[in-house]
Amino acid sequence: MKSSPRVGESAEIEFDVTKQHIIDFADQVMPEILSTPWLVWFLEHTARKAVLPYLEVGESTVGAVVNVEHLAPTPVGARVRCLAKIIYIDKRLFSFELRAWDQHELICRGTHKLKVIRKSRLAEALSKKLAP
After folding, report:
1. How confident is the model at residue 87 (pLDDT cuts 50, 70, 90)?
2. What kind of fold does domain 10-130 have according to CATH?
3. CA–CA gap between residue 24 and residue 27 (Å, rounded)
């Protein structure tokens, strides 16, 4: 890392819920709502956004822990705002407080840890698993 972000730094991402983001078990009774896996995807990318400016060439991030409470449904067409705030740093491991809102209310809260890694080391570790 070139330098390290500080505790309290944050990032935001906004997105519109589309058919791509809905639960796969919606039917005539169960409404089309934002799925938790897609919400987690956006939250993890929000946390990553807070760290990206500090990475060197050859570095990236990987998620390590996700703890999310999905509090309220969000329909197709709604705008969602995700916030990830750094709450703790341990060398290359960053802990985040997560929040997400639609136009009406808080829809999610939780925590996330992501680790800064060297891409080449990850590729090497993976190649050992792929070797015959």
Report:
1. very high
2. Thiol Ester Dehydrase; Chain A (3.10.129)
3. 9
Give the pLDDT confidence of 10-36 residue by residue, as tens digits: 999 999 999 999 999 999 999 999 999
| 4 Cβ contact list (under 8 Å, min separation 6) | 54, 89
Angle (CA) 74 12 60, round 5°: 115
Global model pTM greater than 0.85 = yes
For the chain, domain boundaries: 10-130
Element (H, E) at 92: none
Kind plus residue range of the DSSP H or E element containing 52? none
Of 128, 71, 59, give the one whose Cα is nearest residue 99.
71
